[in-house]
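lol so apparently i was supposed to do this last week
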Amino acid sequence: MRICLTGGAGYIGSHILVGLLEDGHDVLVVDNFANSSPTCLQHIRQLTGKSFEFLEEDICNQPAISAAFSTFRPDIVIHCAGLKAVGESQKQPLRYYRTNVEGSINLLEAMDQAGCQRIIFSSSATVYGTPRYLPYDEAHPVAPANVYGRTKAMIEDIITDWVATDPGRSAALLRYFNPVGAHESGEIGEDPKGIPNNLVPYIADVATGMRAELSVFGNDYETRDGTGVRDYIHITDLADGHIAAMAYLGDHQGVEVFNLGTGEGSSVLEVVAAFRRASNQPVPYEIKPRRDGDIAEFFANPAKANDRLGWQATRTLDAMCADVWRWRSKYPRGFDV
Ligand code: NAD
Ligand code: UD1
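anyway here it is w/ nicotinamide-adenine-dinucleotide bound
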């Protein structure tokens, strides 16, 4: 198939790209390196021994995206490009709405012009907001509590409206839980700029000695050990979910929402313990006050994706930590060293 992958140099997109190339697809990656590095794409070429097309471009540049689509003529778009930092989204809402929402509209217009009728969209469990019940299933109300989450919910609605105008169209809206881990080769992985916001990259920084200790944000939640609980999913399982969704869209019309998670929650202290086991390194931590806006716990009900996509997350938390450790041991400072 001919696949346009936006954000293919980023954390999630790069792992999807490896899967697509291994399956023999023709891929056009569109990325402007706003939060990634060209070195990632070099690693992927070496790792897979495959080539792909690449356009360094902002998805907000509609004429450039349309021109690329009319030449490449994708059968399907996997749309991962976007901005994803919750705190930043509260401070720069217009930038987030422009990149995420306007960028997605541009893509849909370019798809219209090129006759492309299928899209897979990187959404987030953030769209559910405060849990009314757990685990979240896809019928849980959508009530995002921050700008980032609202951009995701808006894009889901826009894609749904776009699909409704033509019976030949189809879309999978994939709500990711907490992707962690790295490719088992250790050649690609998460490479956040500056101080990591997310737990596992921060722990990895501590284990490699780049940061002194982890701050554990709160140990007084109503969870089994008082620390926050999340549904961590191995990045390769997440990437496989996209391959499964692509197959699904091949013979289904309309829009479907799927949770991509394991269905299991792990606490902050459980993740610390798993990382210590995987790395054989100390991970000192200190208990700090709760982080603003944090939820005590959330995890997925992934039954719909299991049943309809024939997909299931299989990799354990220990495997996630071992793969991060391999990646960070090979490339302690990420791609640009
Ligand atoms: P990432 O920042 O590593 O990757 C996003 C990629 O998009 C980067 O390579 C970046 O350079 C590119 N990009 C950003 N703005 C662009 C623009 N205007 N034009 C072209 N390219 C642009 O993030 P990620 O973790 O790989 O996330 C991918 C997608 O999945 C995002 O849409 C994110 O919101 C969503 N998501 C991520 C998580 C997570 O925990 N990582 C969870 C849920 C959803
Ligand atoms: C964050 C984002 C969410 C995004 C998700 C996955 C916020 C408010 N939400 O959520 O939108 O979808 O990442 O990328 O930013 N923790 C610590 N110390 C740290 C970092 C985190 O104790 O240094 C704790 C947190 O309090 C939480 C857990 O670890 O309990 C996981 O945190 P994180 O990795 O940031 O993910 P989310 O909070 O789920």
